Amino acid sequence: MNIIILKKNLRDALSIVEKASGENFNLPVLKNILIKTDGARLKLVATNLEIAVTSFASAKIIEAGEITVPGSTLTAIVSNLTSERVTLGTKGNTLRLTTDTYEATLQGLPAEEFPVIPELKSEERWLECSSAVFKDGVSQVISAVQISDLRPEISGLLFSAGGASFTITGTDSFRLAEKTIGENQIKTSLDEGVRVIVPLKTAQELLRNFGDDKPLTITFDENQIAFRTDDFTIISRLIDGTYPEYDPIVPKSTETDIEVQREELMNALKLTGVFTSRVHEVKLSLRDNKKTLELSSVDQAIGENRYLCAVKAKGEPVSVSFNWRYLLDGLKALKGESVMLGLNGDVKPAMLRSAGDQSYFYVLMPIKSV
């Protein structure tokens, strides 16, 4: 292999794939990135056997070839180069990198030892949307997801698609978030509904790699899902299992509705959260005048505090406690200046929405009073 490539192009391609490489004592090649020529482009691939990430970079191809080299080492070198042009060449299992002022050789492994990246059995089921719209939806939901060894089916995001809309859902059993992307923002081959569970790490890779607004194609079969733009492809396994039926816990109505400025409530939570105990408990109390929401917290070893927020409210006065970090996650995901907090007493799920936006909601369980 012999190619000339701009440092920026190589650096950008490496940044896409570098996090996907994995540690495996039985398969040391997984620490490497596969570098190979692909027509008039350079192709880089990394995998940990659960997710495979491919990126492409424009380059001048003088001689075709392929090799695998340690991804972290190559990334560190390229990130610190000062020259704009980089020449890559191979001799046996060695990669030689040269610029006007720098030269390095990296010991690699044959490309033949790199795992074969599996292709989807069928690409008949597909969905297209803007990568910016998709990224926005995933970013609003992902904070509600945690890895669970006991319940692997909730260790990812549920993608529900078919016909009129595309829904992204996440839960850790204490909170639940859902974003709906409407039919005017998607194209799809799906006539019937499809539900697949995408691992959390895959979703994190998607958020990390999406930049400019570009067309995104999503295809999936029974076991895998693929995300493709012009610049990269991510193929991931799907999580086996049945996602829990969550519709019964989503409040259909609320006894108390509170409208409050989002930034003020976020600031109030951060302040009162300073005095919380191990469970991060903050109490929210709607006063009888329904114009003031009091946030308070107590830690016997530190002290106590309270914060008063001006609100608009209707319904019954109520006092309810939440994990303030979970509530803050929901507020961060919302858009707009004001938010709606719907409550049903101190033991039933509460709901957060942005005022005037029905495409997203965040459901949070209260902390039961002892």
UniProtKB/TrEMBL annotation:
DNA polymerase III beta sliding clamp C-terminal domain mapped to chain residues: 249-367
Molecular function via GO: 3'-5' exonuclease activity; DNA binding; DNA-directed DNA polymerase activity
Keyword Nucleotidyltransferase included in the entry's annotation: yes
Gene Ontology biological process terms in this record: DNA strand elongation involved in DNA replication
Residue stretches making up the DNA polymerase III beta sliding clamp N-terminal domain: 1-118
Main location: cytoplasm
Record InterPro entries: DNA_clamp_sf, DNA_polIII_beta, DNA_polIII_beta_C, DNA_polIII_beta_cen, DNA_polIII_beta_N
Repeat recorded as keyword: no
Keywords: Cytoplasm, DNA replication, DNA-binding, DNA-directed DNA polymerase, Nucleotidyltransferase, Transferase
Stretches assigned to the DNA polymerase III beta sliding clamp central domain: 131-245
Pfam families with a match to the protein in the record: DNA_pol3_beta, DNA_pol3_beta_2, DNA_pol3_beta_3
Annotated GO CC locations: cytoplasm; DNA polymerase III complex
PANTHER family per record: BETA SLIDING CLAMP, DNA POLYMERASE III SUBUNIT BETA
Assembly notes: Forms a ring-shaped head-to-tail homodimer around DNA.
Function: Confers DNA tethering and processivity to DNA polymerases and other proteins. Acts as a clamp, forming a ring around DNA (a reaction catalyzed by the clamp-loading complex) which diffuses in an ATP-independent manner freely and bidirectionally along dsDNA. Initially characterized for its ability to contact the catalytic subunit of DNA polymerase III (Pol III), a complex, multichain enzyme responsible for most of the replicative synthesis in bacteria; Pol III exhibits 3'-5' exonuclease proofreading activity.
Family named by the database record: Belongs to the beta sliding clamp family.
Protein name listed in UniProt: Beta sliding clamp
Organism of origin: Candidatus Liptonbacteria bacterium GWC1_60_9
